[in-house]
Task: inverse folding
């Protein structure tokens, strides 16, 4: 995970794209019925390349890191560093963390399920479900489809780029950390600006699109998007450590503390504990709280075709190019990255105050990885990419070749 991307996490809700790894992990009820075995972490330096890569992430700055990964029926977990700088408590793989924009994959999954049920069409105009919401400064809900929201081709301005809101997220964070926002307010902040482009004409990451997507879920089902995610994804997969906190500002234990260098009046000069704040700054664009184990369970099920019918599965992974990132393409709530060894992984990154995460896996779901660091800075480039390459590229079987 690149330092520039991590710094963006402090200012917004996204770690850039899936510029690092991904995550998968076998669900407890794997279809084969074979019991997964855990490969112990903490081996001597040089004897466990994945653990060594995790150690290098922490050596580059963040207080701690944790990862869960799967290869075949073998599960690997690793940790490094401390979860709490005050107590020096060691990081554990069971510690919850804020996962930021990884939330987007779950939101997209629910909308695709609703389409499969015939309750909406991804090519429906936003105006059909949320009349009058997107109006002003050339923004028009009559012209934007649900699909464009999910693929970041809507042209909707990103509310996190609004000057006043950005200030509240960064230099003004200490005074505004508990400010609460309704989704309609976040959309209104975005609509202060003109569209970035005409819908469907280009690509640009927009958290606003996913806030609107969450509102569409509620309009279609009559229930909050978080309840639908819980009912359709978290509960069926047994993701008991995952939640969408709403207005809750604290993290349920066990959880890591989150640290940032990019908030307060003099960014970059000190480390601040930013664990507690209102997740309403993110909502459906990035409020997820989870663990690396739960993330791998989710992506394993998604990539393995257990959450979507074939037509919607194909739609999710039909991706468009990402400008200025030739190794990446963006589907519906998922990003692909072609690694240097030729393997392509699918997933999403997530960055939010004091936390940077990545989750993805091979397209067949056989090999997976999810990890998190509880600090939004790093003194070395691409240390997260190092862990990704170790897991997906080292000694890969021929079946993993593109």
Result:
């Amino acid at each position: 995970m690149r330092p520039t991307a991590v710094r963006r996490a402090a200012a917004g809700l996204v770690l850039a794209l899936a510029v690092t790894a991904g995550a998968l992990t076998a669900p407890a009820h794997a279809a084969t019925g074979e019991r997964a075995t855990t490969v112990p972490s903490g081996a001597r330096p040089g004897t466990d390349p994945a653990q060594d890569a995790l150690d290098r992430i922490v050596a580059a700055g963040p207080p701690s890191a944790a990862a869960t990964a799967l290869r075949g029926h073998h599960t690997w977990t690793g940790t490094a560093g401390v979860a709490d700088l005050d107590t020096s408590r060691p990081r554990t793989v069971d510690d919850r963390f804020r996962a930021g924009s990884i939330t987007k994959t779950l939101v997209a999954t629910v909308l695709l399920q609703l389409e499969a049920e015939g309750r909406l069409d991804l090519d429906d105009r936003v105006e059909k479900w949320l009349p009058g919401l997107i109006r002003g400064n050339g923004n028009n809900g009559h012209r934007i489809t649900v699909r464009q929201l999910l693929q970041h081709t809507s042209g909707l301005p990103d509310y996190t780029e609004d000057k006043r809101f950005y200030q509240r997220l960064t230099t003004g964070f200490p005074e505004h950390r508990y400010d609460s926002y309704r989704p309609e307010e976040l959309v209104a902040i975005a609509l202060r600006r003109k569209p970035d482009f005409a819908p469907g004409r280009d690509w640009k990451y927009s958290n606003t699109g996913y806030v609107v997507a969450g509102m569409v879920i509620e309009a279609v089902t009559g229930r909050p998007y978080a309840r639908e995610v819980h009912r359709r994804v978290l509960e069926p997969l047994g993701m008991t450590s995952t939640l969408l906190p709403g207005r809750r500002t604290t993290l349920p234990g066990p959880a890591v503390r989150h640290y940032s260098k990019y908030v307060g009046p003099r960014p970059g000069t000190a480390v601040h504990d930013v664990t507690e704040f209102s997740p309403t700054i993110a909502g459906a664009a990035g409020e997820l709280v989870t663990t690396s184990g739960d993330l791998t369970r989710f992506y394993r099920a998604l990539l393995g075709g257990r959450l979507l019918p074939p037509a919607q599965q194909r739609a999710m992974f039909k991706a468009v190019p990402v400008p200025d990132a030739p190794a990446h393409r963006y589907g519906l709530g998922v990003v692909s990255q072609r690694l240097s060894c030729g393997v392509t992984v699918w997933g999403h990154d997530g960055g939010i105050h004091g936390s940077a995460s990545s989750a993805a896996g091979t397209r067949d779901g056989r090999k997976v990885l999810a990890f998190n660091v509880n600090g939004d800075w790093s003194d070395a480039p691409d240390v997260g990419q190092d862990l990704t390459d170790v897991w997906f590229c080292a000694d890969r079987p021929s079946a993993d070749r593109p």
